[in-house]
Specification:
Oligomer: single chain
Number of helices: 9
Strand content: under 5%
Radius of gyration: 15 Å
Organism: Kumtagia ephedrae
Protein name: Antitoxin
Structural class: mainly alpha
Domain Antitoxin Xre-like helix-turn-helix: 26-85
Number of domains: 1
Helix content: 55-70%
Largest sheet: none
Domain Antitoxin Xre/MbcA/ParS-like toxin-binding: 90-140
Order of helices and strands: HHHHHHHHH
Pfam families: Xre-like-HTH (PF20432), Xre_MbcA_ParS_C (PF09722)
Length: 143
């Protein structure tokens, strides 16, 4: 399992914010509202050539309201943290950002030829399916 500190790093939370690197601290940070800049950062990391990717996580009109408020809702933050976690897992397996992106955005036969990122964005169960595939790749079982 990916360390909570790694998820916090992907989200761009300040390194000095030590409580956000522990399980309950990160949960609290998400519940309190992750900063909008975390969404911008994750979108740039995962899909640098797709300016629309962030709108898959938070719809455009909603994002404009969130920018005014300065933070995401708990649900949006949870979705963003799930995406950040899977990105970190994919990097851990592939050791290369481009290869991690290829895995995440290419249809995969173990998930009925859906793209892993589509499942991750859609639901927690989708994220777990993708995490299981990545775990199988990392630890040597069929994926």
């Amino acid at each position: 399992m990916l360390a909570f500190a790694n998820v916090a790093d992907v989200l761009g939370l300040p390194p000095g914010e030590t409580e956000a690197r522990a399980p309950f601290g990160l949960i609290s940070r998400i519940e309190d509202g992750l900063p909008v800049k975390a969404l911008e950062r994750v979108a740039r990391l995962i899909a640098p050539e797709d300016a629309q990717f962030k709108y898959r996580l938070v719809p455009k009109a909603t994002l404009e309201r969130r920018k005014a408020a300065g933070h995401l809702s708990t649900e949006e933050g949870t979705r963003l943290a799930r995406v950040a976690r899977i990105w970190g897992l994919a990097l851990d397996v592939w050791k290369d950002e481009d290869e991690a992106r290829q895995f995440l955005f290419r249809p995969h036969p173990m998930i009925e030829d859906e793209r892993p990122m589509d499942l991750v964005v859609r639901s927690e169960f989708g994220g777990e399916l993708v995490a299981d595939i990545l775990g199988g790749l990392k630890y040597g079982s069929a994926a």
